[in-house]
User: What shape does this take?
Amino acid sequence: MARGNSSAARTLRSRLTGRRVIVTLGAGGVGKTTTSAALALALAMRGGKVAVVTIDPARRLATALGLENLSGEPHRIDAVALEHAGVELRGELWAMMLDTKATFDAVVERLAPDEASREEILANPVYRELSTAVAGSNELSAVAKLYELHAEHEFDVIVLDTPPSRNALDFLEAPGRLLGFLEGRALQVFLAPGGLTAKLFGRGTALVFAIFARVTGVDMLGELSRFFRSLGGILDGFGERTRVVQQLLRSEQTGFLIVTSPEPEPVREARFLAERLRETGLGEPELIVNRVHLDGLGGRSPEELAERLTDDLGADLARRVASNLADFDVLVRRDEGTVRELEALLGGREPTLVGHLDEEVQDLLGLARIAEQLGV
Assistant: This one.
C-alpha cells in the first residue's frame, strides 16, 4: 500500500482543529463516502466523540463501516467489532444515514404546539408529499438533522457526507432558500383566509385547481391552504433552526473538504466546487486527492531498477517487475501533474494524498488504513 504525503496530512490535522462540522463534497465515484467514514474513524481514534452522517442515498456508508444497514438516528459503532478489526478507539464513533420523512416527522413532533396540531400536519396529504418525494426535501431534512445533531447531542465533530457535487450545493444553499420562503410573500398567500388565497392566485390558477379537484377529487388549493395554516405553530421554530444552521455553515466551526481523484472529470468538479464555495462566502476548502498512484520507478530507468533488483529476484523476475513498475510510472507522473494543478487551485497549499489501494475498502480495517494515510 502506498502512503499519502505526511506533511500535508499533518497540515490537514491542524486545519481541521476546532471544527465541529466537516462537510465533505466531491464528484461521484471518487471514494467520498469511504473517505468521510475514514476521517470520522481517525478523529474518534484520537479521542473525539464523532458522528458520520450520509445524505447520499446509495447506502455505501454502512458497508464501509462493516454494518448491514444504518438507521435514521445516530448509532454507536460497537467497540468490540472495532477491536476485532484491530482498531483501537480512544473516543466514540457514531454513524447514521439521513431518513428524510422521519426527520421531518421528528421536527413536527418537537415543534407542534399541541397533539391536535401535530396530528393535523402529519395526516395532511401535502405534508406526506413534501416530506418524501418533493425535490429538495432531502436537503431540507439534512438542515433539520444537522441542527439536531449540533444543538442536542454532545458530539465533538460531525462529519457530513453529501451527495455527488451539484446536489451537494443544493444542501449548502437550502438554508437560504428556505428562509427566503418562510419570510417571503408566497407563504403569506397560503396563510391568508381561504377566499383571499384564491383571489391572490388569480382566476386562471383558481380554475386549474378547480378542474384538478373535479378530476381527482382532491381540493389541492384547499389542502395547500389548510396545510400551511396548520404549520403556523411551528414555522417560527423551524425558521430559527434554519437560521442557526445557516450561521453554523458560515462560521469558523465548519470546514469544507473536497474529495477528488486524479482523473480529469473529478478534478473539474473539484475546481467547480472550490470556486462555488468561495463565491458563496463559505471559505477556502481543504482537498483530499484519493486513489493517487505513488509507487513507480522512483526516478530510475527500468534498466537501472532491474539491475538493482537482480540480486534479490533473479534477472528474469527483476526485468518483469521493472517493466510492470514502468507502466505504473506513467500513472505516477500523470497524478503528480494533477496534484501540482490542484496545489495552484489551493493557492499553493498541499492537498492531502491517499494512495491507490489494490482492493476496495469493505470493512473497518480497510477504513483504518485510509485513516492512517489521512493522518488526522
Notes: The CA atoms of residues 208 and 214 lie 10 Å apart. The domain at 6-374 is CATH 3.40.50.300 (Rossmann fold).
